[in-house]
Amino acid sequence: MSRRLTIDPITRIEGHARITIQLDDAGNVADAHFHVTQFRGFEKLCEGRPFAEMPSLMARICGICPVSHLVAAAKACDRILAVRPPKTGSDLRELMNLAQIVQSHSLSLFYLAAPDLVFGFDADPATRNIVGIARTNPQLAGDGILLRKFGQRVIEILGGKRIHPAWIVPGGVETPLTAEKRDEIRAMIPDAYAAVDRTLTWYKANLMGWAEEEASLGNFKSAFMAMVEDEGNVTHYDGRLRIADHDGALIAEFDPRDYAEHLGEFVDDASFLKPTYLLSRGVTDGMYRVGTLARVVVAKGFGTPRADAELESFRKVFGPTPSSSFLYHHTRLIEILHGIEKIEQLLKDPDILSDRVISNAQVNRNIGIGVAEAPRGTLMHRYVVDDDGIVQTANLMIATGHNASAMNAGVLQVAKKYVHGEDVAEGMLNRVEAVIRCYDPCLSCSTHAAGQMPMIVDLVDSRGDVIRVLSR
Amino acid sequence: MTVHTLTIDGVERAGVEGQTVLEVARESGVEIPTLCHLDGLCDVGACRLCVVEVKGSSKLLPSCATAVAEGMEVTTDSKRLTAYRRTIIEMLFAERNHVCAVCVANNHCELQARAADLGLTHIELDTVNPALDVDASHERFAIDHNRCIMCTRCVRVCDEVEGAHTWDVMGRGLDARVVTDLGMPWGESTTCTGCGKCVQVCPTGAIFEKGRPIATTKVTRPYLPYLKTNSQEVSA
Taking the mean position of all CA atoms in its chain, how far away is CA B41? Predict the structure, then answer.
């Protein structure tokens, strides 16, 4: 008799989701599925709207990473206008995107993942949260808040508000940067460096303690995809997409606008999330990962000295092509450092204060594709507009969609280790959630439960009858 | 020139024959909220936001379209008036699809501002959610009927100031729409001069410059009274 285990809801991720673990007749884990249970409908609701609204409309998808949607949407609109923003316009967009990467990674690492890292994956949920960290590790909690505030404040300085600024627009950005604002951002950088340095020291000192998690949380072979610039370093704003195999061997490198020649989407009947796959390998074998881990696997480096030094020591420990999704956390931390460095670099260029920040044009193309690296991975927007600029269709490929198959593989790996027949080993639920959290899946803007995790596990037999309900 | 004396909110005021209650009130520094009214254009009493109580009348009267009279006793502010005004704004929001967050006129919108003035934070009425088009066929401008409140300022400015009369109203009640050239796409209009006055007078983000991102509509209206007064003087 086959059974099904359902974990619902999963907490401390951005959105609502549910996990089903399918057991075979012998009681062994046969398959695992990560379902997204919420429906948003953004691709549909933007039909009929003027294209210039798309950046702001699409930013509403998420309150955590609105800037990535702003960037991808504005780049797609640039294509519709058939213009290239002035260099300062592009640089300012990149600056804001980096600020968001810093704040989003800080949220993921300090607020969502750190409770497991600090207190252990099986600690009492009443203390295993950010408030618990503030009590026992006030420096760590303070650094997390500082780094998140840094990123949010930079976004606010540039765009006028922290969430959903309407500053990134088709053709460039709305207003130039002033010297006062630049200096205000610069003045915050030393504290941000200090906070990330302290956190890196803490993280590396505890590395050995997480060896088991590194070995078992989403540790499998897969391809990786990320955007790289001309020299092969990580870029979050504009470059070529590179897909590498688990051993680093190049599978493809292409202009992001040609993504449809390399990536496919399929509809998963059990989830509102549309997973993607490598066309050359098919739906079943086409799994790949995106995000911070993928970026450090496919790219040569970050192209900034401090992050590259950290990356070098990371590679000494884990090799050039690490396979464990647990390392998303570590690479996220290194990328926070890179974000601050790159922001500092961009602000050093005197041209960053140039008044030429936007290229104006009318509709010159009917299709626009915009691709950028969001905190969680590659983000793609594709719009088709009529000659008046009214959106006819929109298609989005989101980081969590790229990672969907890899998340299933991670859950399956954990389930196989912890579930045997009706026996569910202690700590299984915590680790299933932990493996999902490695990817920092952004299922949409949503709140996060604090304290006791409300979790229900249904044991369902092959006829669909619930034979046992576990809850806490 | 006949002068009438009247009281507004208990204070004695004087107005010239033909002046509206709204004009006299504003001259006296008494603020009455309006939406369809715009200095320089004729008044049509479309929005009813400027309703006032007049002693002897059981009905509320639109101050923009009510002439002053001798001995009139006008109340511009009362619980009853506030309730009516709030309901009017609420009905405007419920009738079409107003999404401030992604609107070109966000923070520059008169509908939004009046709602804020009246402390309207939620819509309790069921929304109609009609499926309405955006006409972006004009080279420079577009109209999003979702945001139109049928104030007809565009119709009046186009007729009275520009003299083109491109805009007009079609249909009745919930089905009423402003149209260009008897319902042709704006871009095919042969009467539109492309002057942009309709963009300048639109109180919401319904008529806007194409390609402008959200919250960036900038309107410059001071020229309107000048143009109107000038044209009246010339014709007189």
Answer: 10
